[in-house]
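#structure-requests
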Amino acid sequence: MSPDDANALLGDTISELSEMGSLKALFHEHRDGDPLPSGRALREIIELARAILFPGFYGNSTINSHTLQHHIGVDVERLYSLLSEQIRAGLCFECHECGERAARELALRLIARLPQLRERLATDVEAAYNGDPAAESWGEIISCYPVIKAITNYRIAHELLELGVPLIPRIITEMAHSETGIDIHPAARIGHHFTIDHGTGVVIGATCVIGNHVKLYQGVTLGAKSFPLDKDGHPIKGIARHPILEDNVVVYSNATVLGRITIARGTVIGGNLWVTEDTKPGEQLVQAKKRSMNIIRPEDYGGL
């Protein structure tokens, strides 16, 4: 291909890629003064929040009781500045008139909730420790267990969502998803003393309601059945479509719980089960045992 032909092909491709009709919702038009959410800034926000919520385990490792207030003060001020910027960036996706003042007020309201968030996260650490005989200390739980990272991101993101902040909460939970393999939608509602053992592959949908003292194992899906459609064939959104798990429920590995059903208080769901109906309080769901097993011997196939 000659240089002229190559340039012509590149020009045609650029024109085609720039056609507004081909972009639909794939284009976010930048306006003067409107920032965009920054992955780097949001990662720093999460690092700062973890350092504030779990001082000494995250952030400055030399912190002690004498320097605690100073270090938390520095981190909170930095968090306030970054969070204000990122909230404003998120608001620009839905409200171009929302400015710096609104973003700073929302950031202050989130920071004011951090003491309550720490109290709630302490119950999650306790649940993980009490639920795992291999855990030797709370410090091990906080430092090593992926559920603490995932649930910290979720609880921060959920508070931001409750405050009306768009986009940013979902980015924060997806950061935890990438880091831990645990996918929790920020709109889900999760009570205290919540834990996930191992964690990889867990999915918790947007309209899930999870009570207190609930434990999940790896690979659990709390999902939805297929979307109902409107008269035009479009999925109906905004409806409650994920399970309700009442208090003291345990769901073992690779179980799939689908639809707006209620898993009653004290239910135990065994591994690899598919559950689409309500359960009774205290019910135990397990796979049926086979009465006989087919044993295949090498001689059945002429030896090895």
